[in-house]
Specification:
Largest sheet: none
Oligomer: single chain
Helix content: over 70%
Number of strands: 0
Distance between the termini: 27 Å
Structural class: mainly alpha
Number of domains: 1
Radius of gyration: 23 Å
Shape: rod-shaped
Length: 113
């Protein structure tokens, strides 16, 4: 390939993130002197690795989000229970909302195609 390895990967990832179809990226590489079959294999490999990385990040975001949300609910339940006879309790709405948002962001990432 005429580009250095890292530069070629960065180029393809950048194009994919901008929504450029894979066949147009292949055509661009071919126009730069890359063999068509090599360009197709390269773009397919980079696209698959990128998608895998996004899905893995999604799984991580889902797990972290679930922990934040559940942790917030548990703290709220414990303080509410402790204040049952009269007193104050804490509603950790920030952790609950943050966790839910992060969970659903991760769900979207893990379902990318």
């Amino acid at each position: 390939m005429s580009r250095s390895g890292n530069a070629a990967v960065e180029y393809v990832v950048g194009q994919l993130e901008h929504g450029t179809p894979e066949d147009e990226i292949v055509e661009s590489l071919v126009n730069q002197g890359v063999d068509e079959e090599e360009a197709e294999d390269f773009v397919e490999g980079v696209a698959a690795a990128r998608l895998n990385a996004i899905r893995e990040a999604g799984k991580s975001n889902m797990a972290k989000g679930a922990l934040w949300c559940i942790g917030g609910l548990v703290v709220t339940a414990i303080t509410y229970s402790a204040a049952a006879g009269g007193g104050t309790y804490v509603v950790t709405w920030g952790a609950i909302v943050f966790g839910a948002v992060q969970f659903f962001k991760g769900l979207g990432q893990s379902n990318q195609q």
